[in-house]
Design goal:
Structural class: alpha+beta
Radius of gyration: 27 Å
Helix content: 10-25%
Pfam families: HET (PF06985)
Mean pLDDT: 82
Protein name: Heterokaryon incompatibility domain-containing protein
Number of strands: 27
Shape: globular
InterPro entries: HET (IPR010730)
Strand content: 25-35%
Organism: Knufia fluminis
């Protein structure tokens, strides 16, 4: 066995893939998919049952219409032409060849008249076949249901993504390739079968085990080409049910189940490398689901940076309903102080210009981030939030695009400067350290529990390295039973002589730093004045009084 495999005891009634076929375009796969979704529909209380009797349908749908004994066309239908609210399926896919037909002003009449299947890419044709498995005649595909050359239509429809995917009976995810790659694959049946062995284990004789690939779900679903698209993070999060067509087999995910052709009856989630990403999943909470979605979204790719806010708006809208909280450009009002302490992880991304989000929001950078869920806030914050200003592009879309945003704060600012340690790599947190009060903190970041850990949002340019920066203490935190630490943001003045600042980094300061400084100064100076100086430096960053001694001032953080 490899390092990514483990033995799992199999009871006699265990559901495993017994006789896989050399393709998932088969009656066996079809019946399995139908069984998964029917089981969810009839037995899963946590899964939404609003989809089949939806109170809402998209503005446009594709109607799958049979023509003659074996022909099929798809017609673009406006919802005012549809009686009632029929069930529909949504497609999550990667756009492929630019020659593929899309809904535009010039093609609208053709699509409304009806398009033969041979005009559609393979993935769309396969999705229509899957709809037929369930006798469903309506399908939603973004490229064929949103007018691609109308900015107004695109903006209006992008604000309905929460409803589109949440109300769909299920979502088909084309995981393995682009729109011309198709859903169905030819495969080696052995790639789907789960190897079994009979062996003794410790003091238990002759039991049957299967060899489980611990990274199956992670590799074939979470890291699939489709899952690297930022828009798809939202589509997966919002969908009640997802039928995922991977590189070798089908996977199915809902709020209570995660199954695949290898394990059609399901296994423990951790055994397949799976983590809950759905808001209503029984193994998570709304805030944990938000953190997971934000992390996955930040790691995914966007073709257009200008979509950064709107491509997450549906997730934010749904979380806002569950959390009963106010959304503020990637952060939440009730947890605003703690969430200001997000980290670029790994550090050193880029911040596009012009930026579509304020620098205090993680949406301002291109790259992965994390929120530390482990720490508890201790005592009062070091700053006061006097005003949160967000100028929305559309007042009716509070989770959507913005014109501008800023914070007016009353806070302390401690002057500092960057110090670049070239022996460390660009992604190493030790590469960009700070000097403060004439002290170089480079050597005090190795202790993972009590550290001076500098984390940069964007890779500092030569200009930034030569520019004074400021440490703005935010709060004191505690990790379980560990010693308390101070979290501060690294700011840079936007324009000389103004009170406007930008966030460019984040630091964590622990008491071990101060202790080492004290010992260093005592050894270097060996005088009473040296000891006194060491005591002052001990207090310089890790003690509340060090920050509160600095006169507070009002600033604007943009």
């Amino acid at each position: 066995m490899s390092a990514n495999q483990s033995l799992l005891h199999l009871p006699e009634e265990a559901a495993l893939c017994r006789d896989p076929e050399d393709t998932n375009d088969s009656a066996t796969s079809r019946n399995l998919a139908i069984a998964w979704i029917n089981n969810c529909w009839t037995k899963h209380t946590a899964c939404s049952k609003s989809a089949l009797k939806a109170s809402w349908i998209p503005r446009r749908l594709l109607r799958i219409k049979r023509v003659g004994p074996s022909g099929t066309v798809v017609k673009l239908i406006d919802r005012n032409q549809i009686e009632g609210q029929p069930a529909y399926v949504a497609l999550s896919h990667r756009w492929g060849n630019s020659d593929v037909i899309t809904l535009k002003s010039a093609t609208r009449a053709e699509l409304e008249a009806g398009l033969p299947l041979d005009r559609l890419p393979t993935t769309f044709r396969d999705a229509i076949r899957v709809c037929k498995w369930f006798d469903l005649e309506y399908l939603w595909i973004d490229s064929l249901c949103i007018i691609q050359d109308s900015p107004a239509d695109w903006l209006r429809e992008s604000h309905t993504m929460k409803a589109v995917y949440n109300h769909a009976f299920f979502t088909i995810a084309a995981g393995a390739g682009a729109s011309d790659a198709g859903l169905f694959v030819n495969r080696n049946p052995l790639a789907v079968m789960v190897p079994q062995v009979e062996t003794s284990w410790h003091n238990i004789p002759n039991r049957r085990y299967c060899i489980v690939d611990d990274r199956l779900w992670l590799r074939d679903v979470d890291q699939a080409p489709l899952s690297q698209r930022a828009w798809v993070v939202q589509e997966r999060f919002l969908s009640s049910r997802i039928l995922f067509f991977g590189a070798t087999q089908m996977f199915y995910e809902c709020c209570e189940s995660s199954v695949c052709e290898s394990f059609p009856g399901g296994r423990a989630k951790c055994e397949l490398g799976w983590q809950p990403k759905k808001l209503d999943h029984r193994d998570t909470t709304p805030m944990k689901a938000w953190y997971a979605a934000a992390r996955a979204y930040s790691e995914a790719n966007l073709t257009r940076y200008s979509d950064k806010i709107v491509a997450l708006a549906g997730v934010a809208e749904m979380c806002q309903e569950r959390l009963q909280d106010k959304y503020i450009v990637g952060l939440w009002k009730k947890r605003f102080i703690a969430q200001l302490c997000w980290e670029a992880y790994p550090q050193g991304h880029d911040r596009p210009d012009p930026c579509i989000a304020p620098t205090w929001s993680w949406l301002s950078i291109n790259g992965s981030i994390k929120f530390d869920e482990r720490f508890e806030l201790c005592g009062q914050p070091f700053l006061q939030i006097l005003q949160v200003h967000v100028d929305l592009l559309d007042e009716g879309a509070p989770t959507g695009q913005i014109r501008s945003a800023y914070l007016r704060l009353k806070c302390s600012l401690k002057p500092a400067s960057w110090h670049q340690v070239t022996k460390h790599g660009k992604m190493d947190f030790r590469r960009y350290q700070l000097s403060c009060d004439g002290i170089d903190y480079t050597d005090y970041s190795a202790d993972s529990d009590h550290r001076f850990w500098t984390n940069v949002d964007i890779i500092p340019t030569t200009q930034i390295l030569d520019t004074p920066v400021f440490l703005m203490p935010v709060t004191r935190v505690k990790y379980g039973i560990r010693t308390e630490q101070v979290i501060a943001l690294v700011l840079q003045r936007r324009t000389s002589g103004t009170c406007e600042y930008e966030r460019i980094g984040h630091i964590t300061v622990g008491p071990a730093v101060a202790e080492k400084l004290f010992m260093q100064r005592q050894q270097e100076l060996q005088t009473l004045s040296g000891v006194l100086e060491g005591i002052l430096q001990y207090l310089s960053l890790s003690d509340d009084s060090a920050w509160t001694r600095i006169p507070q001032q009002e600033i604007v953080l943009v």
